[in-house]
Give the backbone structure.
Amino acid sequence: MTITNVVVAIAMEAEASPFVNHLNLQPDLSFFPSETPFRAFRGKHNNCHLTVITNGKDEVHGTGVDNVGTVPAATATFLALQKLKSDEPADLLINAGTCGGFQRKGAAIGDVFLTTAVANHDRRIAIPSFTPYGIGRIESTSVEKLAAHIDAKLGVCTTGNSLDFHELDSHHMLENDASVKDMEAAAIAWASEIWSTPHFGVKVVTDIVDGEKPSHEEFMENLGTAAEKLQSTLPKVIDYVCDKKHDEL
């Protein structure tokens, strides 16, 4: 199957805007149910139809901040793939965004990682039959050739609903063999699996998880730079995957 219809899931608008503007994608106000805060931007790049989805802003608690974490990410992805299924099914879903990186795995600020798999580090269910479900490891579609083409690193992305972490999280992140850490990847992969849509992540490092600086400070310092790096990387990713077959990635 040739890849001609791609969904790019990006949680935060600050991460998505440079890419959306660069490719001149237009808002589609009818894409998501009006009750949801999610946003969609659509257009065509070369021979590929693109749909960029974001989680929108918080209206439930009235804070107006970006909706982050697994609940909005899974819901937005599910609804987007469901919408496309009735029209033209997505050939590929790319989860793009920023992340924390582990220096023990060679990560540095600004590095681009493509995911080999995703897993959760904060779904601890101490019942034998539920333990693998809680971890929820899902393999990403193979993208070794793409990684070499754009000079990106490869690794597992571990997901949790907190920006910070404690000792037990650290243990599970190590168990997951994580190279990078985020708040959405495992949820987006889960929703993609439901719709049998191949998927992988493109993650730019904003902070060093196992470094000396507090994650929230380093994240805010580097978010703008990482968003620009994401904007310069994503068009290269789209150019590479479009019109290719999955086994050519």
Notes: The chain has seven helices and ten strands.
